[in-house]
Amino acid sequence: MSPRINLLPWRDTLKKEREIRFGVITGISLFLTVLVILGIHLYFQGEINYQQSRNDYLQKQIKIAEAKIEEIKTLDEKKQRLIERMSVIQELEENRPQIVHLFDELVKQIPNGVYFTNMVQKGNKITLDGTAQSKARVSSLMGKFEESEWLANPKIYIIESDGEAKNNFQLEVTQAVPSIEN
User: Fold this and answer.
1) Domain contains 118
2) pLDDT one-digit tens code per residue, 64-113
3) CA dihedral 57, 62, 65, 66 (to 10 degrees)
4) Domain that residue 89 falls in
5) What's the CATH code of the domain at 118?
6) How many CB atoms neighbour CB 178 within 10 A?
7) Within-domain flag for 171
8) Is residue 18 part of a domain?
9) Count of C-beta atoms within a 10 Å radius of residue 124
10) CB atoms within 10 A of CB 152
């Protein structure tokens, strides 16, 4: 009779050891996989946070730049208004002596027996309403205006007699600035 050797417990033990090793290796693999995935997630989350902070910084800078642009537009509008005011003031300053010359010239050129009743100036055009003792005096006034350095292009619009030895007239003349020769 030969001794019977039961090898089943040894095979069961070996099988259990292999199963345990497989479980440990699988657990370690799963742990390492989770660790790698967690590392990748944290890396990308850090990159997203970094980019978000850069975007926030850029948004703040854009708002600051937009505020400065609005301020510049406001300053440009103020500058334009000041330039317009300065040009009006400068134009008035330049034209100030002309009105004196205009009235002086009107007084010099008006013949006896002619009276102005109304004067309207728009730009350099002057409309004069008046009364004269005769049409010849109105004609004389027109001739003197043509010879004047400060008045030019006289045009008569109306000349009518009112029956009382008076002639009412309306004429237009252009205010001129004589050229200064050296």
Assistant:
1) yes
2) 999 999 999 999 999 999 999 999 888 878 777 777 777 888 888 888 88
3) -150
4) 58-182
5) 3.30.1360.100
6) 10
7) yes
8) no
9) 14
10) 15
